[in-house]
Amino acid sequence: MNSGPSDLSTEARRAKVDVLERFAHRFPSLLVDTVAEHEPGKRLVAFKNVTVNEEFFQGHFPHKPLMPAVLMIEALAQAATLLLLDPATVGDDGLGSDGLGVQLRGVNGAKFRKQVVPGDQLKLVVTLGAARGPLVKASALAQVDGQTVVEVELLLAVRPIAHIDPTAKVSPTAVVGPGTVIGAFAVVGPHVRIGRNCKIGASSVVDGHTTVGDGNEIFPFASIGLAPQDLKYKGEPTRLEIGAGNIFREFVTIHRGTEGGGGVTTIGDRNLFMNYVHVAHDCHVGNQTIFGPHATLGGHVAIADFVNVSAGSAVHQFCRVGAYAFIGGYSVITKDALPYGRTVGSRPARVFGLNLIGLKRRGFADDTLKKLRSAYRYLTQSKLNTSQATSRIEQDASLKCREVDNLVEFIRTASRGVILRRGGKKSDDSAEE
Fold first, then answer.
1. For residues 154 and 85, is the Cβ–Cβ distance under 8 A?
2. How many CB atoms lie within 10 A of CB 73?
3. pLDDT, tens digit (0-9, with 9 covering 90-100), for 29-54
């Protein structure tokens, strides 16, 4: 590429060198050969070498080949696109420049002053003007040997588009929302619906009757929406439904439902699944949960909102984990894990008091924490059995609050029982404080 004027800064030279390479893949027929000057967000100068081998010269015209006026406009529009889609121009809006596209909305005041023929070098100069919302005006002109051959005002729109890597295998019947970027060698099946502004990583797979909401990020080698690992499954069209803003890291596997389990696996909003997490068929995960590496959910598991399941932990099929619960690393959950509590250990897991750190981070009031702490003492430190403890909690007027009511309701509706075995001296509230 041309080095440009000698007074350009090092940063400006670097910017003009790589702007063309960064976006050359966007154009099926690129009419810009080199970028000579580049002021991000302001101005771009590029060159087009017009040769007799161009396809458009074949028949236009046989005895006097001329570059069509519409293609000169196209060359200027492409130069404007290079300028508009540069990261320094569009900024960091979560889409990235690969999630944006430029549409030519208007050509105003075009004046063609001279013919362009094979052998000419077309100098393309684009200067950005006023912007309103997604619409941007650009003043554009093309010169040959210092003489203006065309000048025009372009009206362009910058909008989210889906960008699919050429090596990705995306079914023509899949729905991919604007702003979504699909990486190299990713596979998207025929019944998949992906929302806006998602990122589908390289070599990942999204298949089955799967709906992926807006703003999700699926990292390389994740497997989303494949058939459940259930011998009773015979290929019936079950579903996976994913909300918005989730992150699925490398090698995460999320399976769709089974007919016997309700037919659907659901994932809420803004959850983080670290690498190698597995969510089996017919699970239901709430909102803003965190799963550490290698955490595993068996089939039919229900995870409430704001739960943290630490690395290497496993939750047995048909179990529930209550809201705001913390499951310690490498724990095995074979009964329902209490909301608001810390459950740690393997066969049997034990309750180590309230999840005080998590609850405080979530803004729980001191009065609510005091009531929950007292309710936990009834459950884990008194000599009462579970039924007696829950009755005593309900009768204690000093403990009345929504969170304590939720705790009691969770215990009463547990079909597999709840984990209540106390964790020993370290579970004392005084130790936590």
1. no
2. 19
3. 788 888 899 898 899 999 999 998 88
Q: What are phi and psi of 76, to 5 degrees?
A: -65, -40
**Which tokens in the block code for residue 372?**
């929950």
> What span, in angstroms and rounded, lies between the C-alpha atoms of 19 and 364?
50
Q: Which residue matches tokens 């944006």?
A: 100
Q: What is the mean pLDDT of the chain?
A: 90
Active site residues per annotation: 281-282, 299
pTM of the complete model? 0.76
The structure tokens listed for 49 are 């070498």
Residue keyed to tokens 């293609």: 71
* Paired sense of beta strands 135-144 and 121-132, if any: antiparallel
Q: Which pair of structure tokens corresponds to residue 293?
A: 């590496």
Best CA proximity match to 306, nearest among 350, 364, 239: 364
SS3 string, 57-116, reads: HCCCCCCCCCCCHHHHHHHHHHHHHHHHCCHHHHCCCCCCHHHEEEEEEEEEEEEECCCC
Residues 57 and 222: their CA atoms lie apart, in Å, by 48
Closest among 262, 261, 265 to 283, alpha carbons compared: 265
pLDDT per residue as tens digits for the range 225-237: 999 999 999 999 9
Per-residue pLDDT band for 429 (boundaries 50, 70, 90) equals very low
Planar angle of CA 318, 323, 327, nearest 5 degrees: 70
Give the 3-state secondary structure of residue 391.
Answer: helix
Cβ proximity of 337 and 343 under 8 Å = yes
